[in-house]
């Protein structure tokens, strides 16, 4: 019989995601080789992954750290490697340019800008060769 603690730990298990992220990163994102990317569990009914940067490090001018939140239930998602590539493309965008440019992300509060940002990220992901999986996920 599983204890409540063991059940909670299983519900947060994202160990399956590490090899997928490592594989996609090595194959398609050589520019992220030195990036500090940490995986964390995500609770969401609609998202498999979410990507953010650590705001405290941004504000204090420290080396940036990026968080890739992983839905523990997403291991069987169709096109999972393409979804991971999409999230890693966000990190590429976060790393390009100056930190001041990241303040522009506040525009993501606007639905119109969010749609354009997502479309641009999709196109960049497709250019990296993640065609079929991303198209399957988006349909």
Describe the secondary structure blueprint for this structure.
Blueprint: H1 4-11, H2 17-28, E1 36-41, E2 49-53, H3 55-60, E3 65-70, H4 80-95, H5 99-102, H6 111-127, H7 131-138
Parallel strand pairs: 1-3
Antiparallel strand pairs: 2-3
Helix pairs in contact: 2-4, 4-6, 4-7
Can you tag this structure with a few keywords?
three-stranded mixed beta sheet; 12% strand; 139 residues; 3 strands; alpha+beta
Range of helix content? 40-55%
Contiguous helical run count: 7
Structural class: alpha+beta
- What's the domain count? 1
Strand order of the largest sheet: 1-3-2
Beta-strand content bin: 5-15%
State the low-pLDDT regions, or none: 4-9
Outline type? globular
Mean pLDDT rating: 81
Distance between the termini: 40 Å
Name the helix and strand elements from N-terminus to C-terminus, one letter apiece. HHEEHEHHHH
User: Main beta sheet, described?
Assistant: 3 strands, mixed
Query: Which value, in Å, is the CA radius of gyration?
Result: 16 Å
Let me know the number of strands.
3
Written description of the protein model:
The chain is an alpha+beta fold and 139 residues long. Helices cover 51% and strands 12% of the residues. The chain has seven helices and three strands, in the order ααββαβαααα. The chain has helices at residues 4-11, 17-28, 55-60, 80-95, 99-102, 111-127, 131-138, and strands at 36-41, 49-53, 65-70. Helix 2 packs across helix 4.
């Amino acid at each position: 019989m599983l204890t409540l603690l063991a059940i909670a730990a299983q519900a947060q298990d994202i160990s399956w995601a590490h090899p997928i992220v490592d594989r996609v990163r090595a194959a398609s994102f050589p520019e992220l080789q030195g990036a500090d990317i940490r995986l964390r569990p995500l609770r969401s009914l609609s998202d498999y992954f979410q990507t953010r940067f650590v705001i405290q490090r941004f504000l204090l001018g420290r080396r940036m750290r990026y968080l890739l939140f992983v839905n523990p239930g997403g291991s069987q998602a169709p096109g999972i490697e393409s979804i991971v590539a999409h999230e890693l493309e966000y990190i590429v965008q976060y790393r390009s340019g100056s930190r001041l440019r990241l303040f522009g992300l506040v525009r993501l509060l606007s639905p119109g800008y969010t749609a354009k940002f997502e479309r641009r990220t999709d196109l960049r992901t497709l250019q990296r060769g993640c065609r079929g999986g991303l198209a399957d996920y988006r349909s």
